[in-house]
Amino acid sequence: LSLRRQRQMCIRDSKGSIRVPDAPFRPGEEASFDSWPWKPGDFSMPDPKTCEFKDTTELANGLVRVLDDDGVASGEWDPGLSAEELQNGLEHMVRLRIFDDRMMKMQRTGLLSFYMRSLGEEAVAIAQTMALQEQDWIFPTYRQPGAQFVRGRDMVSMICHCIGNEEDNIKGRQMPVHYSYREGRFISVSSPVGTQFSQAVGVALASSYKGLDEVTITWIGDGASAEGDYHYALNFASVFNAPVILNVVNNQWAISTHANFATGIGDFASRGLPYGLPSIRVDGNDFLALYSVTKWARERAASGAGATHIEVLTYRTGAHSSSDDPSRYRPGDEHTKWPGGDPVVRLKEHLINIGEWSEESHTELEERIDAEVVEAYKEAVKFGDLANGPYPSADTIFTEVYEEVPWHLQEQHDEMMGG
């Protein structure tokens, strides 16, 4: 209740009533979030290799922070990153934000059919992926494309996928922004949200069975956590001691449905405790806190101690997608009242505070990356655009599924090709 105001309606008839949650604020109302009572340094860091779920009750009901409101880092959860590592993280976040802006402009001008931004959530995938090892598996939702930047994916390749031209590495099999990046161990985004949670546990168990030093990380939205896949994943991860990091990204909104509809207890982190999983709630707009909590969970998983359940507390600043109009269900300035602020601004201010950045450096970075994105788009459309193609060949629907094409598919392929 201290994290967000909850309100409810009652639907009544002659037989009784039922409680129906509602959003804290609706269009035309004044949004006002309570200040967080938790400060950096409030919580100690338990030993990841010996920590049991009951040792994390305070962490699940509190909020791990490293950066305070003035951009000063403190507490046991401070990962002590170098200036170079912090600057690298800031660059990745700025790159994702500018990339998203350019892709949205493409969509609005008919050059792209559909798009989803990560505005306000850039730190989530970027800080967390930076805390992993290169061999670790990534099972994302559509708001973790920044992980690909950390793993070195080229923007031209990403744009080709979004356009769906002949260089689309998924060959037109997926919607735009439903990336897959084999070289970066970034598993295909799924439109039926939630499925990746159970799949991530399965891959983690396979790695464990093979004796490999591989950890799997996955994310699910607050809305999708109301689906069965979420609970299946937590149960399997707990029972079989899977080396997996299970993140619920509570960004307050599942399309137009508020997070109140997804849990009756007011938070998400503590839902992992009954499953016997160490559970932590972390400030999702605090780059350092995200990095540290993920590093802790990775060490735990790699040691054989099992899974960690994390609530990433953040706010979806933009629309759900290019098809959404958030002004229909929330106040237009609600995001400006969020206690967590802006993840890019917070890390920038921290770097300035420690004398490793400046406003001039930031402006230069934004200008350089904007030019990179524009150049990447010009290069991508050389392989075809949305309106004119060329698109992946139709016969690709028969390829890259079976090592040896079954006879009945071969017949269909030959028929399609006029054979």
Q: Overview of this structure, please?
A:
There is one protein chain. This protein is of the alpha/beta class and 419 residues long. The chain contains eleven helices and nine strands. It has helices spanning 57-61, 83-108, 122-130, 146-150, 155-163, 195-210, 228-239, 287-302, 343-353, 359-380, 407-416, and strands spanning 7-13, 16-22, 137-139, 216-221, 244-250, 253-254, 257-258, 279-283, 308-313. The protein has a five-stranded parallel β-sheet, with helices on both faces. Strands 1-2 form a two-stranded antiparallel ribbon. Strands 6-7 form a two-stranded antiparallel ribbon. β1 (7-13) and β2 (16-22) form a beta hairpin. α2 (83-108) packs across α3. The radius of gyration is 22 Å and the shape is globular.
Can you lay out the helices and strands and say which pair or pack?
Blueprint: E1 7-13, E2 16-22, H1 57-61, H2 83-108, H3 122-130, E3 137-139, H4 146-150, H5 155-163, H6 195-210, E4 216-221, H7 228-239, E5 244-250, E6 253-254, E7 257-258, E8 279-283, H8 287-302, E9 308-313, H9 343-353, H10 359-380, H11 407-416
Parallel strand pairs: 3-4, 4-5, 5-9, 8-9
Antiparallel strand pairs: 1-2, 6-7
